[in-house]
Amino acid sequence: MSKKIAIGGDHAGFVFKKQLISKLENLGFEVKDFGPFSDESVDYPDYVHPLCSGIEMGKFDQGIIICGSGNGVAITANKHQGIRAALCWNEDLAVLAREHNDANVIALPARFVAYELAEKMVLSFLNTDFEGGRHQSRVNKIACR
Fold it and tell me: No. of H helices and E strands in the chain?
């Protein structure tokens, strides 16, 4: 069974999003595009909130969110109690976000990394498991419930 991936962001991430969808589908991932569907200026919360709600409801295994800096989408995503979004700008951070933080969403800064690096980060993120163990008690303390 393939992983179900939710992807979205804003106009600055539109080109990366299209390229990532193609790559992931070719690798057998099931991908849901939450938008935007052009490079016209949009407000990222309009796309990130529904994406994160879908992950919280169990409709998707993981998410990818992309904007210019990655900060806006990450801040928005992390307002959701069931989301642990990690802003990544290199492959090591993407791996550690999964291994140590059990991040379920990767946030990408499209204006600050090359597409090739973004693709490597996403694939590392999606293919890395949470280590659990000593990290589990820390992750359990993240949500404000």
Answer: 6, 5
100 annotated active-site: yes
pTM of the model: 0.96
Which of 11, 49, 100, 135 is labelled catalytic?
100
Which domains, and CATH codes, for the chain? Answer: 4-140 (3.40.1400.10)
Cα separations (Å) of 22 from 5, 10, 77, 124? 12, 18, 23, 17
Catalytic site residue 144? Answer: no
Q: For residues 60 and 24, give the distance between their C-alpha atoms in angstroms, rounded to a whole number.
A: 14
- Rounded to whole angstroms, how far apart are CA atoms 85 and 51? 12
Measure the CA angle with vertex 83, ends 42 and 127; round to 5°: 95
Give the pLDDT means over successive 10-residue stretches in the chain (145 positions).
Answer: 94 98 98 98 98 98 98 98 97 98 98 98 97 89 80
